[in-house]
Amino acid sequence: MTKSAVKIASTQLPSVRGRYTDNAPLGSVGWFRCGGTADVLFKPADLDDLVAFLSACPADIPVTTLGVLSNTIVRDGGLRGVVIRLGREFADIRFDGHDVFAGAAALDGNVATVAADAGLAGLEFLSGVPGTIGGALRMNAGAYGTETKDVLVHATAVDRVGCVRQLTPADMHMTYRHTDVPEDWIFTHAVVRGTPGDADTIRAHIADIKTKRATTQPIREKTGGSTFANPSADELAAAGLPDGTKTWQLIDRVGGRGLTIGGAMMSDLHCNFMINTGTATAADLENLGEEIRRRVLDQTGVTLRWEIRRIGDVLPDPALVPDPQHLQ
């Protein structure tokens, strides 16, 4: 179970120019297409609106930021407090020489495409990263040998009390699939740097990445990208495994390919991808992931680290909830 806070309503929150939605369903907007609701969903009108909200929002009200939920499972019990989603006001992309200013709500693939059209190379990897720039900053997302930290000049975030902060990669202590920034800080934009190149060559590289993804990953399914991070060299050495062993190989070794719990399944195409076959609950997905972790630990000695974020409250198991009639 996760620690739950008291359910709130928008009437308890500061006045804003953006939009509040009470009891907002989140399953319909996430890539897994399952999960619970947010007490309140807030879409700020702009940066000033976001800053004003955070400055005035009581400290005891939880605040969570979500993007397009491309690598997130929202548990079936939903999220207490306020969920902030940045809209198109935070999705702008513009240039200053070789630098690309990208709002946190800009899709990673759009940044790669726009940069290619401008003749900027080095950002093609973003076309292989599902989600938004904000998510890429949060987890130091990467693909095909390049990580966000490799191209990042600086990022801007707003902390829980409404202070705007500019952060360099060194400030953020970015490591493999991790950024050391407080969870309640909200990224609003990034400046990434490309290098001059031939636009047609860059576009061809992006096309190759997209083709590779389409043939090796279940991108047309209800999925969330890689489920677990690859083990480090030290973790592999401690388990007596060859350097460079990938997570999918460990999952395959323990019979995880095609493994199903409820409506959740490890993809046959790429067994480090979980998919919702149509009826999965968030609990099905998380239970499947934990079963994979158990098998891999028991059989190889490696503890897999979730790459997919799991947030919110777990619904009680109906089988474990006492019948009220039996309590009388």
UniProtKB/TrEMBL annotation:
Is Nucleotide-binding there in the keyword field? no
Supply the EC number(s).
1.3.1.98
Offer one Pfam family short name for this entry: MurB_C
Gene, per the UniProt record: murB
Keywords in alphabetical order, please: Cell cycle, Cell division, Cell shape, Cell wall biogenesis/degradation, Cytoplasm, FAD, Flavoprotein, NADP, Oxidoreductase, Peptidoglycan synthesis
Q: Could you provide one GO biological process annotation from this protein's UniProt record?
A: peptidoglycan biosynthetic process
Query: Which pathway does it serve?
Result: Cell wall biogenesis; peptidoglycan biosynthesis
Cite the InterPro entries for this sequence.
Answer: FAD-bd_PCMH, FAD-bd_PCMH-like_sf, FAD-bd_PCMH_sub1, FAD-bd_PCMH_sub2, MurB, MurB_C, MurB_C_sf, Oxid_FAD_bind_N
Q: What does this protein do?
A: Cell wall formation.
Instruction: Answer whether the UniProt record assigns the keyword Cell cycle to this protein.
Output: yes
The record's GO molecular-function terms, alphabetically, read: FAD binding; UDP-N-acetylmuramate dehydrogenase activity
Record's catalysed reaction(s): UDP-N-acetyl-alpha-D-muramate + NADP(+) = UDP-N-acetyl-3-O-(1-carboxyvinyl)-alpha-D-glucosamine + NADPH + H(+)
Name the coenzymes or cofactors required: FAD
* Organism annotation: Micavibrio aeruginosavorus EPB
HAMAP family named among the record's database cross-references: MurB (MF_00037)
Q: Which family does it belong to?
A: Belongs to the MurB family.
Residue ranges constituting the FAD-binding PCMH-type domain according to the UniProt record:
33-197
> Which sites are catalytic?
177, 226, 307
Q: Name one GO cellular component term.
A: cytosol
Q: Where in the cell is it found?
A: Cytoplasm
Protein name (record)? UDP-N-acetylenolpyruvoylglucosamine reductase
